[in-house]
User: Fold this.
Amino acid sequence: MICFVTFYSHFDAIRMRRRLEDLGIGAVLMPVPRDLSSSCGTCLRFETDLPLPDFLSEGTEKVVEALGGGYRVILSSEEAP
Amino acid sequence: MKEKRETMILGGAGLLIGVIAVLLVKFGNPANMGFCIACFLRDTAGAMGLHRAGAVQYLRPEIVGLILGAFFLSLGRKEFSPKGGSSPVTRFLLAMCVMVGCLMFLGCPFRMVLRISGGDGNALLGLAGFACGIGVGVLFLKKGYSLKRNYKQTKAEGAALPILTLALLLLAVIVPVLFFATEAGGGPGGSHAPLLISLAAGLIVGAVAQLTRLCMVGGIRDLILFRSVRLLMGFVGIFAAALICNLAFGFFKFGFAGQPVAHSDGLWNFLGMLLVGYGSTLLGGCPLRQLVLTGEGNTDSAVTVLGFLAGAALCHNFSLASSANGPTLNGKIAVVICIVIVSIVAVANTIGKEKGR
Assistant:
């Protein structure tokens, strides 16, 4: 599946890319697509058939799976205290 | 494919905004100042008596329109998303510093583009400084700079400033005597398009900027970070359309001396905009973007806008703002101090992040 991960800071995205690469998952650092969010930060895009790693929740705002015409939210930290 | 489409939309949005900006000048706004977020917030601060510089006092309906245009469109698109709590005091401080830089140069990044399209060569030095400032800010982003995460807020909190701006405008229309206003011919504050035209222009541009995420800082930041020209296309579109309209209306005048509401001190034009680029990168967007995010319910941006207002008042109460005669000594000292303050904020919010790897 194709996943996008949005972050609260650019550096969180850089750090997550390193961790994904350690697992052999190649991720691309890119601006957040407009149809995913109205904010303009950094996101990661990667493709994997493996189960998503637990550490994906660290410093991330949202993890979504890209479907045909939209996205399915897998994890969102927006509600966290 | 998606990115190409977004790039085209941004370019088109820029063209529309460029045309509107020059039309506002045609309808009465100061030359090369169809839009200027810094100048208009400065005029608005003056209208409320936060400073007493008689030449720059007018409650600019464009500001209200920009916030409300983004507010209503984000509500309609279900993108109104109240959130905040990401180092608000630091943002307030950064915003004050950014305003000091803007009023050294005499314009925000939006007006910088409009000044270039009007033939003002001084703004090219501003652009060079602006790009350098963003470059420095990006270095900190890459090293771990962050003002920490935001949190979900109530709808009332997110809507507070948009509704307050609407109330202010209504008050200014119903009881105008409450506000200060520069007389026609008395300075930039006295030059303005009719209220409804200014308001409509603000509403349209606010909505378009919400839809496209147009941002002058983001354009150059993303070019450096991702080699992406997408956001930059908004910038390019504004320049192209405003240039053509300025030529068509006979507003274009290339040169350095005698440019409208500008001075020709190259070093301080450069340093002023360096401060703006640097501080805005740490804030996550240019002054226009902060207004749009305020409309979307981002209370951190709302605090930033309040910081701009306070910064503008500070600039005129302490003679920090430049004029057509050039920068002031106080202004030069303030720009240096603000670059130091922004650097302290950058370092303090960056150090130690590498350890978390």
In short: Chain B has one domain: 2-351. Residues 2-351 of chain B form one domain. The CA atoms of residues 125 and 270 of chain B lie 5 Å apart.
